[in-house]
Amino acid sequence: MTPAIILRSHGGPDQLKLEQVDLPDPGPGELRIRQSAIGVNFHDVYVRSGLYRTLALPGIPGIEASGIVEKTGSGVRDFRPGDRICYVTGSYGAYAAHRNLPENLALKLPDTIDDEIAAATILKGLTACMLLRREYAVGPGDHILVHAAAGGVGQLLCRWADHLGAVVIGTVGDPRKEAVARAAGAAHVFSSSDQELVGKVMDITKGEGVAVAYDSVGRDSFQSSLSALSYFGKLVNFGQSSGPVPPFEVSQLAARSNSLSRPIIFHHLRNPSALREMATEVFALIGEGILKADIGLRLPLAEAAEAHARLEGRRTVGSTILLP
Predict the structure, then answer these.
(1) Domain named Enoyl reductase (ER): which ranges (predicted)?
(2) Peptide bond before residue 58 is cis, with ω within 30 degrees of 0
(3) Of 91, 100, 50, 94, residue with least CA distance to 72
């Protein structure tokens, strides 16, 4: 048996309940993991609320964590008890003290990265890699727009893009978060509710607009993101913390020959070699101090509901983790 958070019905944070669940021996190709830290993400909020119906109920939510291999199933060759690992999975199950994990999802942790940093960073770091290296190859001199620049992914985007030589324009939902975004590498920071945002972006870019807008906010920021683009600029919508984007006329993209994408990180990670290639890049940047995890909230596993309430209420800065 192991403690785990069970979701039996979609709804508010109070639907997350701590229970004891059976844990069988690891099967062929599986690892038994004693988890050290568990990442909490907006994806988890969407799953809990029912906006994403990708977890069969009752089920254990959570898609990223770090831990130590305790036992291996038959056929496992690359891991042994005592190995430190982290993982991201679209099959859920991370909100637990122990779990079994397919070997091909496990990433060995370098000695330079501790378990909490790994749990707080791996999904966000892989997401930043997807956005900056695969969705649009950010380079020196690019002006880019990053919404929610003080959030977990937002800070990593700012740090990485600044390292690549881009000029980062960030937005924040709370004036108190402006200093956080600037410290992460945003050259310009504005309120997400600023009615003059597009005009200010155009002033900064001398009327050109941004090469790419990274938008995890969704409904409230979509139109300003689109209006801030340069000719041939790209809007990358990768979240919807303010709600889903309503239907819009595709012809709006014709104003400046723009493009729009809605990437899903698990599609980029479906190839194990791509997963390891991206993780290697993320681990290297963490080791060099270029990417830093700002863990703003640590709570016990039993308080997963509180973690969701604070995240959903935009009362967090940086990353949130649960400790089993």
Answers:
(1) 11-322
(2) yes
(3) 100
Return contacts of 190-196, CB within 8 angstroms, 24+ apart: 192/147, 192/148, 192/217, 192/220, 192/221
**What's the residue count for the chain?**
324
DSSP state of 25: P
* The pLDDT value given to residue 241: 83
Is domain 2-122+266-323 in CATH 1.10.760.10, yes or no?
A: no
What is the model's pTM? 0.89
The Cα–Cα gap between 130 and 263 comes to 9
The CATH topology of domain 140-262 is Rossmann fold (3.40.50)
Q: Are 253 and 259 in contact (CB under 8 A)?
A: yes
For 51-101, the pLDDT digits (tens) are 899 999 999 999 999 999 999 999 999 999 999 999 999 999 999 999 999
Phi, psi of 149 (to 5 degrees): -70, -15
Q: Which two tokens stand for residue 185?
A: 């590498």
